[in-house]
Amino acid sequence: MTDTSGITNGELVRNATPAAERGPEHVSEPTDYDAILLAGFGGPEGQDDVIPFLRNVTRGRGIPEERLEEVATHYRHFGGVSPINEHNRELKAALEAELQRRGIDLPVIWGNRNWDPYMADAVREADQRGFTKLIAVATSAYSSYSSCRQYREDFAMALDDTGLADKIQIDKVRQFFDHPGFVQPFIDGVRDALLKARAELDDLDLSSEIQVLFATHSIPSTDAAKSGPQSRGFDADGAYAAQHKAVAEVVMAAAEAALDLEIPEGGGSTVPWQLVYQSRSGPPSMPWLEPDINDAIDDLAGGPTRAVVIVPLGFVSDHMEVMWDLDNEALETSEKNGFWAVRTPTPGIDPNYVTGLVDLVLERRDGVPAEDRPHVTDLGPWYDVCRPGCCENVRLGFKPALSGLVP
C-alpha cells in the first residue's frame, strides 16, 4: 500500500517546495532556499559511544549483540572515534568558505542519521533560525536504499518527530556520482598512483602488471536490484553497480589520457581494472554484491600482477570502512600476496568536490535546465526528484520519504 500521509492539495512530493512538489525529473523553476541541510551518516566520538551508535545503525535488522561487538573492535582500534564526524565538520566549514567566497548567503546546518547531531536536531535548528525552505546535500553519491532513500526517509521522520512537517520544506540535490566535482579527485588519485607505481617498480607494464580495484560498500543483492528507477532497465545489480562502473570507466580514461597511454584497438582501458565490494555485514545466507576486495586481490596471485591500486570510489571521505577494510585488511591482503599497493584519497574537502557541491545547490536555486547540467557519464544528470518506487528496501517496504514521488 502506498503511504500518502502528509501529501495534500494535489501535491505528489511530500514537504517539497512549490517548484518540486509535482515531481518533475529535473526542476527548472528557481527556488529561494533559506539554508543548506548537510546530511551525514554520523559516527561515535568515544569508546562509550560505539555500541549505542552501532545499535542505531542496525536498528530493526535483528543483528545480534555479538556481531555488534565484533564490528566494535574496528572502532576501538581507533580509540572509539570514527573520523566521519570530524570530516563533516571540515566539509561544513569548507562549504561555508566557498559560499562566502562566491557571495552566497546560504547558512549550512548539519544533521546525522545515526549520531549527534541528529537530523531532528538540524530541523529544530532550522526552525529556531526561521528557515522554512531547505536544500539537502547528503554525503552519499550513488543510488541505493542506504545511500539515498534512507536519507529521504530520515528527512520525513525528522519532520514528523519534531512536529515541523507543516512549517518546513526539504528538497534534495541530485545524486552526484557523475558530477565532475566528485569525479575529478578520483581521476587525480588514480593518475598519481599509476605514476608512483611506474616510478617505484622497475619496468612495470601498466597493461598487465597492475590492477586498479574500484571499491565500494557491498549491499544486499535484493537492494541492488531495486536501486534506481526500475524503468531504466538496469541489470540485476541495478543502478548502484551501473553508476559505479560508468564512473570507473571515466576515471580510467581520464587518468590514462593524463599519462599519454595508448588507447587499445577497439577502445577500452589500457590498465586492467575491476569493480569490487567491501564491508558486507549480512548473514552468509543472504546474497550481497561480489566480489569482495580481499577475494579479488587473492585471485590475482600467481598471475602477472605486481601492483594494486585501491580506489575508494563509493566513499566521499575516510569513513571507518575505508580506514579498516581498505587501509588495514585490503592492504594487508596485498602485502600477503607480495603486491606493491597504494590506496588513493577520497574527495574529503578537495576544492573540486566542495565547489561541485555548491554548484549542485545552485542548480536548484537557479532552476538550471537539465541540458545545462554537468555530468561525465551517459547516466546523468540524475533526477532531482526520485522516481516512484526508486531504491525500495524489499525487507522493510516503503516508508514515508521526502524528495521523491510516492511510494
From TrEMBL:
It comes from the Bacteria. GO terms for molecular function: ferrochelatase activity; metal ion binding. Pfam families: Ferrochelatase. Keywords: Cytoplasm, Heme biosynthesis, Iron, Lyase, Metal-binding, Porphyrin biosynthesis. It catalyses: Fe-coproporphyrin III + 2 H(+) = coproporphyrin III + Fe(2+). Fe-coproporphyrin III binds at S82, Y151. GO terms for cellular component: cytoplasm. Residues 1-29 are annotated as: Disordered. It is an enzyme of class 4 (lyase). The keyword Kinase does not apply. Pathway: Porphyrin-containing compound metabolism; protoheme biosynthesis. Signal peptide: none annotated. Belongs to the ferrochelatase family. Involved in coproporphyrin-dependent heme b biosynthesis. Catalyzes the insertion of ferrous iron into coproporphyrin III to form Fe-coproporphyrin III. This is Coproporphyrin III ferrochelatase. The lineage of its organism: Bacteria, Bacillati, Actinomycetota, Actinomycetes, Micrococcales.
